[in-house]
């Protein structure tokens, strides 16, 4: 689907840690070859070991068994590690938002009553949010959606989703939404525009701002997809984002972070995108 940056002259359409602890066992201190070899020799030539006591033989068999179990465990653990889903280089954080809606509800509770999502494919996110009980949702799509599906065009026609260039002020009053969620969109903005867009996103939030960004090294926009976004994504690390938030006087929401991580841990959730929970301006 071809996308272009929304025309600033008509910005709005229709008013309105993976943890692997314990997975790998420690390496055996001695090589298993010697005791296993001795056992095989004993089975083939038992008379050689007539001078060895039964206790010595039992100890040798026991040590051999322990080493064998350790080798099996190391092999099984390595196979499990290979099967861990890796982050796809073309993974969409907007898809990730849809995955974590139950965890966001646990973290924000009543603040999920009135939600604004900002980013590519916002129609899909808004449609999913609207299915949640006691949740109202709106969206801002930063790119033209000429080839969008009928469901998305219906949301635009109703004024639930707007097409807007987020480098300009958002068409909402301060604290219009309890929670603002942004995904993918910030990865395509330079610091010059981030300095304008991030405060705008926070301005319209009353309870918090949740930011989903890609991990460094994940080049999401391939050559064939550059026509969608106009430029490749700039994947920044968590330290860069934290420093940038502080420069804009934004604090992380420690309470929301704790609740989100607890819910995610119970759901065996492994993040494919970086997630930041920020307090709104007061």
From TrEMBL:
Name a GO molecular-function annotation. methyltransferase activity
Q: Which UniProt keywords apply?
A: Membrane, Transmembrane, Transmembrane helix
The cross-references to InterPro entries, in alphabetical order and at most eight, read: CGR2/3, SAM-dependent_MTases_sf
Where is the chain membrane-spanning?
Answer: 58-76
The answer, when asked if Transmembrane is one of the entry's keywords, is yes
Q: Does the keyword Transmembrane helix apply?
A: yes
Any idea what this protein is called? Transmembrane protein
GO-annotated biological processes: pectin metabolic process
List the source organism: Gossypium australe
What Gene3D superfamilies is this protein classified in? Vaccinia Virus protein VP39
């Amino acid at each position: 689907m071809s996308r272009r940056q929304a025309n600033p002259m008509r910005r709005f359409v229709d008013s309105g840690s993976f943890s692997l602890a314990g997975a790998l066992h420690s390496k055996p201190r001695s090589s298993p070859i010697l005791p296993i070899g001795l056992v095989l020799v004993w089975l083939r030539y038992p008379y050689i070991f007539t001078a060895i006591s039964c206790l010595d033989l039992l100890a040798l068999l026991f040590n051999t068994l322990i080493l064998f179990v350790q080798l099996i465990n190391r092999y099984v653990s390595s196979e499990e590690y290979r099967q861990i889903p890796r982050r796809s280089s073309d993974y969409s954080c907007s898809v990730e938002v849809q995955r974590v809606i139950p965890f966001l509800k646990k973290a924000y509770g009543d603040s999920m009553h009135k939600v604004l999502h900002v980013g590519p494919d916002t129609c899909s996110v808004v449609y999913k949010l609207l299915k949640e009980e006691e949740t109202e949702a709106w969206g801002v799509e930063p790119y033209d959606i000429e080839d969008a599906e009928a469901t998305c065009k219906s949301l635009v026609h109703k004024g639930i989703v707007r097409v807007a260039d987020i480098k300009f002020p958002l068409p909402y009053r301060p604290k219009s939404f309890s929670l603002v969620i942004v995904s993918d969109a910030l990865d395509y903005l330079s610091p010059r525009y981030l300095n304008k867009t991030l405060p705008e996103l926070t301005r319209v939030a009353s309870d918090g701002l949740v930011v989903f960004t890609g991990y460094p090294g994940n080049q999401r926009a391939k050559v064939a997809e550059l026509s969608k976004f106009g430029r490749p994504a700039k994947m920044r690390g968590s330290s860069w984002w934290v420093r940038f938030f502080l420069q804009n006087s934004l604090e992380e929401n420690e309470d929301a972070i704790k609740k989100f991580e607890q819910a995610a841990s119970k759901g065996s959730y492994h993040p494919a995108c970086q997630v930041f929970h920020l307090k709104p301006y007061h």
